[in-house]
Design goal:
By secondary structure, the protein is α+β, with helices and mostly antiparallel strands. Helix content is 32%, strand content 24%. The longest helix has 16 residues. It is globular, with a radius of gyration of 18 Å.
């Protein structure tokens, strides 16, 4: 007899995981004691699929500064959902090649373990050739600045601050053009570092996300290997 289990609301999907037998991966939002937690899930029964899920969970903890609950769910230390930002953390974690026994599945990424670390709060904006830095000023507030010989620094700072707002559901602080904040009032340095990489091209990122969402659905066990 089949049993139906409520695993929450699916908020993100990777239809084909190129790093592990093309299985389908998904991120679900659940509630535990009135607070949001996230479940990384697959219906695939391919050998090693659960180890792949564990690798993604570990990557999300590192890249997004997330915490793991005793039952294997993920959450942010502040207790808030940060749903859109969590979706980005999940997608970035799924891009990392699968590593088992200290070795990546693909020869060209043997140094993968070195890449699995929090992203810095600084990046080179290829469009303007400016070095963009984000400084945490406390209480979940971050200030964006630019340095270098590129042009249009003020405009790029404003655009990248806007990118952080869209990707992380952050808020602009007052009338400032360079300062944004998390509504939870807590710092999320690892999360901001990860979002900063995508913030300069936020329109492209959001367009790609929309396209990915239409590519497939999470198949039931009978439809996956």
């Amino acid at each position: 007899m089949r049993r139906i289990v409520d695993i929450g609301r699916r908020i993100e999907l990777v239809p084909i995981d190129p790093h592990f037998h093309d299985i389908t991966l998904a991120l679900y939002l659940q509630q535990r004691e009135g607070k949001p937690v996230f479940l990384v899930h697959t219906y695939s029964r391919v050998e090693g699929a659960q180890r792949r899920l564990r690798a993604i969970v570990q990557a999300m903890k590192t890249l997004g500064g997330m915490q793991e609950t005793p039952d294997g769910r993920l959450r942010f230390h502040c207790g808030a959902g940060h749903e859109m930002a969590c979706r980005r953390v999940f997608l970035e974690a799924c891009k990392l090649p699968h590593v088992e026994n200290g070795r990546a599945r693909l020869p060209e990424v043997e140094s993968e373990k070195a890449r699995l670390q929090p992203r810095p709060l600084q990046t080179l904006d290829k469009k303007s050739r400016l070095t963009i830095t984000v400084d945490s000023v406390g209480d979940g507030v971050y200030r964006v600045s630019a340095d270098g010989e590129g042009r249009g620094a003020a405009r790029r700072v404003f655009a990248i601050a806007g990118g952080l707002m869209k990707l992380g559901e952050m808020e602009r602080v007052g009338d400032s053009r360079d300062t944004v904040a998390f509504a939870c009032g807590c710092s999320h340095d690892a999360l901001v570092g990860l979002l900063l990489v995508r913030a300069p091209n936020v329109r492209v990122v959001l367009r790609e996300a929309e396209m990915e969402a239409t590519r497939g659905v999470l198949s039931a066990p009978s439809q996956q290997l």
